Model the fold of this input.
Amino acid sequence: MKKASTALSDINKKAAIPLYEYQKNWILDSARFKIGLMSRQAGKSFSTSLEAVSDCFRKKTKWVFLSAGERQSKELMSAAANHV
Done:
């Protein structure tokens, strides 16, 4: 597995939209369960959907998106579709 600093620079080179440091750290954290304390509109859905799409392409995994309501779930799926 690559070192975190190398992986961060890879993300910077390949990203069409620059990511903030906390977003890169969130994506690179491979823990099964994560807890994040972030403000509103901080890019949580963007980062999580990017992580899911990346993981699906690299490891052929499947992800399930759950949100508080149907609207939020559809927005999350839309973000994932944009990454694809």
